[in-house]
Amino acid sequence: MNQYYNTTYRSSCPSQSSYFSSSDYVSTSVHIVTSISIPLSLYGSYCVIKVTPRQLKNAKWALLNVHLWTVVLDIVFNVLALPFLFFPSVSGIMLGYGQYIGIPSWFLLYLIQALVSVFASAAIGLLENRQNALQTRWKINRRWVRVVINICNYMVACVTVIPPYLEKFDVQAMAMEILKTIPCPVPEFFDPRLFFVTNKPSLATMLMAIQCIILLPQPTFYVLHTWYHLVYAHSTRVSAETRKMQFRFLLGSLMQIMIPSTVFMNPILYIWFSVNTGYYNQEINNHLIFIVSFHGLLGTTCMILVHKSYRNHLVRMITLGKFPRKSVIRTNPISVIVSSARL
């Protein structure tokens, strides 16, 4: 590697002039995002624990579970790992603080992969919680069955991505093999901290597809059934106001889940494309890291803004309690007089 860098690379490859292809761009931009997302996430946790209405107390812990996994993923990705990756090879270096406390790079990347799927499993649990609150036969009534299903989802999230990390290979030999197809990567590729996850990139994408096949049908069913029940199959045992509140909460939960999920989806599609076609563009790789770093900020912001109780609490805090004004219920004096006369 050193010989290649000092001879072939320095003589044949043009200097990397683009700031967006450098590790400085990734490090600086992600740190700025993190400085905003961490305090906001703490405020979001407070809102879920203290501000959630009593009518939604059964959903509070499922909502908090989704939010906390978002925060954990945020800390691992933005603070501990901060990956600088070289797709189409499943390799990179870590720029975060995890390297200074001795956490192996491969383990940090495994945590990122697993936590993305754990977030999806927690989201499934939230949607199942909303579907289970309905007055319908099509729900799981036994608590132990719900617990087992949730455990299985978390197992799929954590175990499915393990096989590539069990391989043994020579990093230097793999790096030289990559240089045959990508002779002029960015200089960071020659960093001694360089690591590889697998020499079979297609295996990683196949395992991601298996996860999607197992997990995606569940939220699809919960959302469609809850939507149908609240919109079309009205139950006489539930008041219109309660049904309306449940519907608003469902929409808010969907937005809270879908917005950060969309942040992940675009990088996943690009990784699949890059790995299977051999396309290399370090600027796009870096932009994707920057985009993914927004998942915690977007998820928490969405949660606060779409749920009315959290949104009102934020407005009252910003305006020092002046807005929004609490509605005052006025009693009609005529009705009071009539009622008294009848008594």
UniProtKB/TrEMBL annotation:
Q: According to the lineage, what is the superkingdom?
A: Eukaryota
Task: Enumerate the UniProt keywords alphabetically.
Answer: Membrane, Transmembrane, Transmembrane helix
Report the transmembrane regions from the record: 61-87, 107-127, 147-166, 203-228, 249-275, 287-306
Entry keyword annotation includes Transcription: no
Q: Does the keyword Lyase apply?
A: no
List the protein's name: Serpentine Receptor, class H
Which organism does this sequence originate in? Caenorhabditis remanei (Caenorhabditis vulgaris)
